[in-house]
Structure formats: structure tokens, C-alpha cells
Write a structure and sequence with these properties.
Blueprint: E1 2-5, E2 8-17, E3 24-32, E4 38-45, E5 53-60, E6 63-69, E7 74-78, E8 94-104, E9 110-119, E10 124-129, H1 143-152, E11 157-160, E12 179-188, E13 191-196, H2 210-222, E14 226-229, E15 256-261, H3 266-280, E16 287-290, E17 307-312, H4 317-326, E18 329-332, E19 339-344, E20 347-348, E21 352-353, E22 358-366, E23 373-378, E24 381-387, E25 393-400, E26 406-415, E27 420-427, E28 430-432
């Protein structure tokens, strides 16, 4: 039986195995369509009076893709991650096959049901952490421990950004469900920069002058790294705040700025105010966040606090970095925190909406709590405050052409453990008019 949906193609096959096939491997062919994000296979052996033991494996057009024997009944293959025992890599269109090892069946045989799901790319919000550390610099976690903690937190991707090294990028496990984004925190005594998406973004980390910094950033840019200024207004570390020039160099600009670092605190308040002033001045700055997790010492600093959510059609490295560059990003204080979808007709956050007399902006916020406050912010400041009492709210606001050049959203929440109202989520802006350049 075949079924189709927007998410992909699901095939259910029933395979009847006989006693004569015992200790042999049955090949069950299926055809893979092009342009897939993942292949999921589930095996279920029908119940009977006598037990059966069926092994599981997979073959692609080039050869054996993996084998888990009797250890697993479900497998997932993606380009960059895969179930243990199977190889990540290209999901090549063509003839594939499930391999069933008939280890033991009763005299009457056995019936096996296979569900084969071919997952198509589907635009959606994907959450992860863009700033974390391991034992490869001053963190307490091994690479495996960091991946496991990110997976337990419910994150879809994780960047390991150890200081001035890229050795962590060479040891990340590929049998985890969490997509790895290679990174390095270029760490100077006058500020820090994350270089994301490239295993070795620079050849030398030493920065003694603005010219040195520009040189290294130029190399990272040429290699395809996404460049983000970290915690630019850090108040608890004398060498962590940004003291270099905000102009990174000729024909260069920052891909993003880490406006939210770790728990909401004074350094983030200052960064948010600076970002708002940058937007008001006509600069498109993409705001991102990162937990900057090093250890378990502070219970409020953990993987995914905050979570950076990106709107992408694949949980793949290039798709995530592209979405960040486009500004299709919102931030939430935790993986389970509020979500924001900001749109204007067919346009969503990060887009430039063509000039029109009036535009209706829609905010859809979920995972809300009673008395959460939704704030709509433009270049004229806070233009609307809405207290909510539902878990999901849609707010419409009419934006006049002469009233706003951009529009973004903040959600504020009362946190009982600190007895304060703090930022719980924030979006990147929608922009209005043709005067905006690219981020």
C-alpha cells in the first residue's frame, strides 16, 4: 500500500517468510524518489504462537548501507546523520532494498510488515543551539556528552564553538539525531566571534590588531563560514565585550549578531537595545542566540537556553546557515519556550515587504502562559502590547507605510523563580519598503 502527503511517500509492504528461508537473507526492493530529506524504515513481525527472530539491514544502489541485525526494528538515514550501524550520505534516487535476515522462524513461517517513509523537504521551524563548548577548550563535556545533552533537550542541531580550535569538529558523532554545525569561537582579548559551518574556518587565531582580525575574517568568509559577533556587551568578562571596529572590513559585514547569550541578563538587555538602534538606523542585522554552555555549574546555563529557531526546508547544515543569513530566525528562552511566526501575506520574518499603502501583519504565538505579554516593536518603539490568556494566540496589526520601516515581536513572561518579568521569545523583523539592502 502506498500513500502520499505533503511530507512524503509512505509504502507499507507485507513480506511472508517461510521456514525454508531460515538462515538466509531476503531482499525486499523499493524505489527511492529524488530530492529526499530522509528515509525512515520500520519493521514489525506479526505475533504468533512461536517466536521469530528477523534481522534488519539496508542496501542502496551502490551497495550495503548498513546492518543492525536483531538489535533494531527502526532506522533513519539522512545526508548528515544516521541510525547507528548505518551510513549517512547521499539519498540517491534509484533502486534500494530492505535486507531481512531470516534468523529463526516457526514451521508455519512468519509475516513481516515494513513501513518505508520517504521524507520530502518541508519548510518548518527547526530549533538548535549555536554556541557551546566542550573539553576541546574550557568546557566540561566531551563531544559525545554535548551531543547527548542536546538530544535530550530536544534540539535538532548543535554548534560546538570551542575557543581558537577546531579539533572538536573532527570528532562529532554522526550516529546522533542532532545535526552537527561545525564552529569555532575566534577569541581575542577585545571580543569574540563565532565562525560557523566550516570545520577549519581559519589557519591562525592570533589577533593583535584590527588588520589581523579583518584578515582572519576574510579567510573565514572565503571558506563559507557564517560570521557572528558574540555577546557584544558582556558585563561579566573584561575581554569578552566587543571593542573592535564594528566595520569588519572592505566588502564584508556580519552575517549575524548574538543578541541573546545564556540566561536573560544585563548584557542581553544592552545588546537588544543596541540591535533596536541598528534597525532604526536602517541596518539589517540578523539576531541570533546561543547558550554558551560550558558545564553544569549554573543551572540556568544549559544547551538550548536560549534556542535559536530557523525556518528551513531541511535539517541540513547549508539550509540552516542559509536561513540565518536570510533572517528567518526567532529566539526562545528554552526548547519548550514560546514560538513566534511573524508574517505579512506571503512574506515572513527576514523578508522585505514591497511598499504598499497598508499592510496587515500577523503574529501567531504558541506555548504561551497566562499573562504573557506580546509586544509589537517597530522603528517607533513598542506600538502594541497584548496580554494573553491562551496557549496559542494570533494577533493582527495594520502597519501604515509611513508608520514603520520594520516590525518585530517580543514575548515577555513572569518567571516565578526569579520574581521578574523577562524576555521569553523574540523574532527577527519583517522589513517594509524597497530601501533595505540584504542582511
Amino acid at each position: 500500500m502506498d500513500t502520499h502527503s505533503k511530507a512524503g511517500h509512505l509504502t507499507t509492504l507485507t513480506v511472508n517468510l517461510t521456514k525454508r528461508e531460515e538462515k538466509q537473507i531476503r531482499t525486499v526492493p523499493f524505489h527511492v524518489e529524488p530530492n529526499l530529506e530522509a528515509i525512515r524504515i520500520s519493521m514489525k513481525v506479526a505475533a504468533s504462537r512461536s517466536p521469530s527472530t528477523i534481522d534488519l539491514g539496508l542496501r542502496d544502489p551502490r551497495g550495503t548501507r548498513g546492518w543492525s541485525g536483531g538489535a533494531r526494528s527502526q532506522i533513519v538515514i539522512r545526508e548528515e546523520t544516521a541510525t547507528p550501524g548505518y551510513l549517512p550520505g547521499s539519498l540517491e534516487a534509484g533502486d534500494w532494498a530492505v535486507l531481512l535476515g531470516v534468523y529463526e522462524v516457526p514451521a508455519e513461517g512468519a509475516s513481516v510488515e515494513l513501513e518505508i517513509e520517504q521524507v520530502l523537504p518541508l519548510p518548518r521551524w527547526i530549533g538548535g543551539d549555536l554556541h557551546s563548548h566542550t573539553v576541546h577548550s574550557d568546557g566540561a563535556f566531551t563531544v559525545d556528552e554535548a551531543a547527548n545533552r542536546a538530544q535530550s533537550a530536544g534540539l535538532a542541531f548543535l554548534a560546538l564553538t570551542d575557543h581558537n580550535t577546531y579539533s572538536q569538529n573532527l570528532g562529532y558523532p554522526r550516529d546522533t539525531r542532532v545535526l552537527f554545525v561545525p564552529g569555532m569561537e575566534l577569541t581575542t582579548y577585545s571580543g569574540h566571534v563565532n565562525l560557523l559551518g566550516v570545520p577549519q574556518p581559519v589557519d591562525d587565531f592570533r589577533v593583535a590588531s584590527q588588520a589581523d582580525l579583518t584578515h582572519h575574517l576574510k579567510i573565514a568568509q572565503e571558506r563559507g563560514a557564517l560570521i557572528s559577533v558574540n555577546h557584544p556587551f558582556e558585563t561579566e568578562c573584561s575581554s569578552c565585550a566587543w571593542r573592535w571596529d564594528w566595520d569588519p572590513g572592505p566588502n564584508m559585514d556580519w552575517d549575524a549578531v548574538e543578541v541573546w547569550n545564556g540566561p536573560w541578563r544585563e548584557a542581553n538587555v544592552l545588546a537588544l537595545a543596541w540591535w533596536q538602534s541598528e534597525l532604526e538606523s536602517g541596518r539589517r542585522r540578523v539576531a541570533i542566540g546561543g547558550s554558551d554552555t560550558h558545564s553544569l555549574e549554573n543551572p540556568h546555563i544549559r544547551h538550548g537556553w536560549p534556542t535559536t529557531w530557523v525556518y528551513a526546508n531541511r535539517c541540513r547544515r547549508d539550509a540552516i546557515l542559509r536561513a540565518i543569513r536570510q533572517g528567518r530566525v526567532f529566539l526562545s528562552y528554552a526548547p519548550s519556550g514560546p514560538t513566534i511566526d511573524l508574517s505579512c501575506g506571503a512574506y515572513r520574518m527576514g523578508d522585505v515587504v514591497p511598499t504598499a499603502e497598508t499592510e496587515s501583519v500577523t503574529v501567531v504565538a504558541k506555548r504561551l502562559q497566562p499573562d504573557d505579554e506580546i509586544r509589537i516593536v517597530t522603528d517607533r518603539g513598542i506600538t502594541q502590547r497584548t496580554l494573553v490568556g491562551l496557549e496559542e494566540v494570533a494577533v493582527d496589526k495594520r502597519i501604515q507605510r509611513h508608520d514603520a520601516r520594520f516590525c518585530r515581536v517580543e514575548i515577555w513572561r513572569q518567571f516565578p523563580d526569579v520574581q521578574r518579568r523577562l524576555l521569553a521569545a523574540m523574532s527577527n523583523p519583517l522589513y517594509f519598503g524597497e530601501t533595505w539592502g540584504t542582511p
